[in-house]
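User: Here's a chain of 108 residues. Predict its fold as tokens.
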Amino acid sequence: MPEATKTEIGRRFFKLQQEKQVEKAVEKIRQAQGSDWSLYSHQDIEALKTVLAEVWIYIDRDSWEQIAFTRLSGIELRELIRFGRDIHDSVISGRTAAEKSMTVLMKK
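Assistant: Prediction complete.
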């Protein structure tokens, strides 16, 4: 088995950190939504994860830590999901979705 380069190790670490932070954010949102969480489909949740992953890439870590995921309204959550779906459908780029999402997320 070939040895991984430092660059590859760095990429893997970055991806693992990203996934961990997105999962933590989704869990906060899920808990805050309570029974309303069941209104969201698996595709909705995957779209949310996609857009949050993009935000995590483009936002500085201190700002990410300041986001009040538990205070997102249903309307704001649906807006984020729409941005995630737009990424999947190649309507907008990940960066554009992240920028639009940051506007929603930083209001709180």
